[in-house]
Amino acid sequence: MLAQNFDAILFDAGGIFVLPDPTVLGPLLAYHGGDPAISVHIRAHYAAMAAKSAAGVTERDWQPYNEAYVRSVGVPEEEVSLATTVLEQTRNAYTWRWPIPESLIAIEGLRSMGMPMGVVSNASGQIAEVLARSGVCQQGDGAYTPMRVIIDSHLVGVAKPDPHIFDFALAYFDGIERSRIAYIGDSVTMDIGGARAAGLYPILLDPYDDWPNADFHRLQSLEELLG
Ligand SMILES: [Mg+2]
User: Fold this and answer.
1) What's the gap in Å between 93 CA and the centre of ligand 1?
2) Which residues, including other chains, have CB under 8 Å from residue 10's CB and lie 6 or more apart?
3) Measured in angstroms, how far is the CA atom of residue 75 from the centroid of ligand 1?
4) Alpha carbon of 85 to ligand 1 centroid (Å)
5) How far is the CA of 213 from the centre of ligand 1 (A)?
6) Is it the case that residue 58 has pLDDT exceeding 90?
7) How confident is the model over 158-211, as pLDDT tens digits?
8) Whole-structure pTM over 0.85, yes or no?
9) What's the CATH code, domain 3-17+100-226?
10) pLDDT grade for 67, boundaries at 50, 70 and 90
11) How remote is the CA of residue 46 from the centroid of ligand 1, in Å?
12) Residue 56 CA to ligand 1 centre (angstroms)
């Protein structure tokens, strides 16, 4: 799916721009027998998101995510329960801070094309600051890629998959038809479901082909948008 198909692009933040920091979670779970390699942890995030979506749970329940994550990094079965608890206690909102290199390249490319962009994130009031600290983007001009708006669910009081969260962002994209605006996320239930309900064009970032039979578009990397 090329960027040229759209007049604007909105992005999820977690799993799209930043990941739960593998340099924190690697050593944390190595204690329980997990592989601390960064590539292993990147893969684990998407496996865990797929498990979370398959379980049909929304923002509050991260148990399927945590279990799938620790299994994916190779924590042995007898340690899974304890490691899942440890991950749940540690992976707080502020640990979603490790910038995805391909995504940074992609949004800079989109910026140079003049693509209007924004962020809509289920977050805890921290996401705009973390995205700037991690060198990803900020609302308006600044040191990193400019976004027209960065919406944090905690601050607006609505969370995906409720489609009304997108209204807060769409106010910054006046005159652009919803069907011409892509929303790129990594959750089938929250992102694809929410964007569809809002009339946007949903796209799943699915780097490991976890959803081969999907009835929506998928990207292996945001760089694909650039062709
Ligand atoms: Mg996400």
Assistant:
1) 12
2) 117, 118, 119, 120, 166, 169, 181, 182, 183, 184, 195, 200
3) 23
4) 21
5) 20
6) no
7) 999 999 999 999 999 999 999 999 999 999 999 999 999 999 999 999 999 999
8) yes
9) 3.40.50.1000
10) very high
11) 9
12) 15
Distance 15 CA to ligand 1 centre (A): 5
State the residue for tokens 């962009």: 117
Give me ligand 1 centre to Cα 94, in Å: 14
Annotated domain spans of the chain:
3-17+100-226, 20-93
Q: 11 C-alpha to center of ligand 1: Å? A: 9
Distance, CA of 134 to CA of 145 (rounded, Å): 12
The position carrying tokens 């749940």 is: 88
- Using a pLDDT cut of 90, give the percent of the chain over it: 96
**Reported confidence tier of residue 111, pLDDT bands at 50, 70, 90:** very high
Compute the distance from residue 12 Cα to the ligand 1 centre, in Å.
5
Q: What is the pLDDT of residue 37?
A: 98
Helix (H) or strand (E) holding 219: strand 217-219
